[in-house]
Amino acid sequence: MSDSMTEVAKRILSDLMDFRRTPKSSELCAASDCPVCASLHMPKVVSSVRKGRPVTFVLPSFPGKSPNREKVLGTLPDYAEQLSLQFLGRLCGKVREYYSPGIKIVLCSDGRVFSDVVGMQENHITAYQNELERLIRELKLSDISTFNLDEIYDDLSFVQKRDELMKTYGHSLDFLKQKIRNGSSPSAEPDEQEANRMYCGITRFLFEDMVFPGQTKSRSALQKESRSRAYEVIRRSNAWSELIAERFPEAVRLSIHPQTCGSKKLGIRLVADESWMTPWHGVAVETKAGYVLLKRSEAEALEARLIYSSRGRPSHYKLDSKQEAGAYGV
Ligand SMILES: [Zn+2]
User: Fold this and answer.
1) How far apart are CA 202 and CA 255, in angstroms?
2) Mind listing the pLDDT tens digit for each residue in 26-37?
3) What is d(CA 288, CA 266) in angstroms, rounded to the nearest whole number?
């Protein structure tokens, strides 16, 4: 293989890695050219480049809006999703400038995989998926596509599809609990550390989603429930990951979660310099310095102005300059 192909592959990976999410603890790895992380993903990138084919990246993401209205504006994709799609689209466009086959990003929407565990309605997920696909077409993002559980196991109900997924790809709860426990040790393997961090992050998301005005359960009861639901969300997500890996064997695996150095996944940002926030757990807020993602309640506390889309739906918030002096430093 000629050196120029290796150089192209390196450049593609480095362009992606410019927008990595890494845990705060791994500053050494945060550079876009961390050789440990790059070397894990290079073979797939090189292989596609050598064949002159687009390099495919798969990203489990865009499950549907959080059911917590303190965080989001509604059940459909809004300007926060649009910003993410445009961000990913720019990344694809950047690669196309020097590698004409380009890259493909497949958004593997995972809402259907764990909707029953996180309290999302099936019809909301369907509507979210449809609107996301419409948005991708409207924005003419031909390098971005979606893949979801609805496309496989024809003729089965959503419940049966999830059962089938878990029967084929699921691991036991004990196996997962052990991995998460191991992950709290500093000498743990990267995937154990990631499992532990994911568990903590998802437990927090689930807990936040259940703390709303009128909630009658105690905080400790909610914490307990969040932990057991987090295990199930992760079991489902892991099964979904295995299905995706089988379906897209040549693809580089991206993640919306920060990844430890040497992880098999590459953590990637979706809008700006956010660490854990996602478009489906928050709202887009326009500031003088650009857009940021905040919880809806945070945007409202800043008295940001609600902006409607041309379709008449709540779209995002805008901070006027006097509000920008607010406590969020945005
Ligand atoms: Zn690294």
Assistant:
1) 14
2) 667 776 778 888
3) 30
Q: What is the pLDDT of residues 220-278, one digit of tens each?
A: 999 999 999 999 999 999 999 999 999 999 999 999 888 888 888 998 989 876 667 89
Q: What ranges do the domains of the chain cover?
A: 3-170+237-272, 282-330
How do 305-308 and 290-294 pair as beta strands? unpaired
Model confidence pTM above 0.85: yes
Q: Does domain 282-330 have CATH number 3.30.70.1230?
A: no
The alpha carbon of 193 and the centre of ligand 1 are apart by a number of angstroms equal to 14
Question: Which residue has 């790809």 as its token pair?
Answer: 169
> What tokens were used for 230?
């987090």
254 CA → ligand 1 middle, Å: 14
- Looking from the CA of 170 toward its CB, the CA atoms found within 13 Å total 18
Residue 167 Cα to ligand 1 midpoint, Å, equals 34
CATH topology of domain 3-170+237-272: Rossmann fold (3.40.50)
Using the predicted structure, report yes or no on whether residue 303 has a pLDDT greater than 70: yes
Q: Calculate how far, in angstroms, residue 271's C-alpha sits from the geometric centre of ligand 1.
A: 21
Q: 162 alpha carbon to ligand 1 midpoint, in Å?
A: 34
d(CA 94, CA 32): 16
Neighbours of 109 (CB within 10 A): 25
